[in-house]
């Protein structure tokens, strides 16, 4: 009788340990999935929603995360009725659920153009079916019983290790391109007319891709702040940075069609981008005010200050209405051609003093052109003056 009581206690302890291990695995999966989806893949999940729903903007990451995790937990429970993974291998029952997370977060730049042929749409079900078949076959071949004894400490170590490995694998297989994530975040914010926040995202990015450069221009123009922000960010693409790449594999939701729609008209066949902007800018219609901002920014990015000065006259823009970078370009032209009949009323003389300091620093001794370029950039890198003289 004493032996039977001990045996019952062992079984009771085994069930308690197995139940506790299952709870720990479930909690670990929920915590990881929540953090991963909300804090690391938020923008991608929103983009997936937008792509699948054909542009529907109604999205909230918290309900979406709850729905995704609930579906993955139900899938784990249902598949484990077949696999019956217990004991030290309980965590492996979450492998298909981790594959589900990968499927939701491994999209690339073809998210909007080739979503239907996404490889994980068919790879995830295939791997899941293969995994279940293999586990069931091994159980039958080795005649493993449904219930196996498990020691709590050892079982926790095994299962936590397995959960950690699968979590790391999910992160590695998911999209870790932070520059693409920044671009997606900017697109999501611009779509909600939250252009100021989109520009903050651009300011935090360590790399200025062409897509991000075009998104910045779109956001600052919508904010009517082009003159104050144009050169606060790196400009590596000259006038090409005003538009997205024509290659659809290098863009996301926003393309040149988005810019054409914003400016009010498409370019004519074979028309150069700057010719297109000039044509719209000179329409004289207030509807094309944004085209004027794009055109004037393009002239500055081309370093065509002659064309810029002509545009100021043609558009009858007064000197006291110029914002920072537009004023810097006008002062540079005025310095080059003092006879230019254009009054620049700068009461606080900030731009005048900056130009004087800039020229004074240029007269310092530098060992090489590269040293001059880099030292000038440290102090004046966010000015049109530096861009005009040093940006290649």
Tags for this model:
18 helices; elongated; mainly alpha; 392 residues
DSSP, total strands: 0
- The sequence of SSEs as H and E is HHHHHHHHHHHHHHHHHH
The shape, in one word, is elongated
Structural class, from secondary structure content? mainly alpha
Distance between the termini: 90 Å
Percent helix, as a range, is 55-70%
Mean pLDDT: 89
- Report low-confidence residues grouped into runs of 5 or more: 1-10
Q: How many strands, what sense, and barrel or not for the largest sheet? A: none
Task: Indicate the radius of gyration in whole angstroms.
Answer: 30 Å
Strand content: under 5%
Number of DSSP helical runs: 18
Task: Write the SSE topology.
Layout: H1 2-40, H2 42-52, H3 61-83, H4 95-105, H5 119-142, H6 152-173, H7 178-191, H8 195-204, H9 210-222, H10 226-229, H11 256-263, H12 273-281, H13 289-301, H14 305-314, H15 324-336, H16 350-362, H17 369-380, H18 384-390
Helix pairs in contact: 1-3, 1-6, 2-7, 3-4, 4-5, 4-6, 7-8, 7-9, 8-9, 12-13, 14-15
Would you summarize the structure shown here?
With 392 residues, this protein is mainly alpha-helical. The protein is built from 18 helices and no strands.
Describe the fold and architecture.
The structure is a single chain. With 392 residues, this protein is mainly α. Helices cover 65% and strands 0% of the residues. The chain has helices at 2-40, 42-52, 61-83, 95-105, 119-142, 152-173, 178-191, 195-204, 210-222, 226-229, 256-263, 273-281, 289-301, 305-314, 324-336, 350-362, 369-380, 384-390. It is elongated, with a radius of gyration of 30 Å.
